[in-house]
Amino acid sequence: MRREQEKNRIDEQQREKMQKAPETDVQEDVSYMDKHASLKMGFYFFFFLYCCYKGHYFMTEKLNERLALKEGRALEYEQEKFERYKKTWAGKLFGRDETQAPIKTKIGGYWALQDLNGHPFGSESLHTHYYLLFFGSSLSPDVGPLTLGKMQKAQGILKRSSEGKQYI
User: Fold this and answer.
1) H-helix or E-strand containing 109?
2) DSSP 8-state assignment for residue 100
């Protein structure tokens, strides 16, 4: 009996607390995320579109750069790219002057050396053939053995090819 009375008293206290507590079922306060979810989704959508545009632009630039290099007009392409940059808002705002324009140098060109017998040997001797020039240290204990191993492998490949047989 005593237990029942105590249990009833505890139940009555809980009922009183529930009656005094404000109702929490009413949803008057909407969280920040619910209020601005569409704004957030719109931002992410346009950010995604911007990233797609920049990725496409970057890949197109790289493709054009490779084509220009393949066609032998890399210097002209760099100059065109610099001129296009100067016309953009970023080029006007942060513009580089002419001293920061691409350097007009050519990679490659004519070269001449002497072979072991003292005869001239150069790029004209190898015209229309593939060739590989290596300038490096073979005495380094770290890099030397690896480099010499790669060169030996390349030499073996050249010996087996029709182009390499005449020079190795």
Assistant:
1) none
2) G
Contacts of residue 38, defined as CB under 8 A and 6 or more positions apart, other chains included, come to none
Give the residue extent of every domain in the chain: 42-99, 123-168
Where do we find the tokens 């579109």?
A: 49
Nearest 5°: the CA angle 76, 81, 86 is 125
CA atoms within 13 A on the CB side of 166: 7
Task: Look up tokens 């590989």; give the residue.
Answer: 132
**Helix ranges restricted to H, 21-161:** 32-35, 37-71, 74-87, 89-93, 144-160
Query: How many other C-beta atoms lie within 10 A of the C-beta of residue 78?
Result: 16
Calpha distance 117→131 (Å, rounded): 20
- The model's pLDDT over 103-148, given as tens digits with 9 standing for 90+, comes to 555 556 667 788 888 888 887 787 777 666 666 666 677 767 777 7
| Tokens 């619910």 found at | 34
Instruction: Using DSSP, state whether 55 is helix, strand or coil.
Output: helix
Q: Which amino acid is at 127?
A: H
pLDDT surpasses 90 at 100 = no
Q: How far apart are CA 141 and CA 121, in angstroms?
A: 31
pTM of the model: 0.38
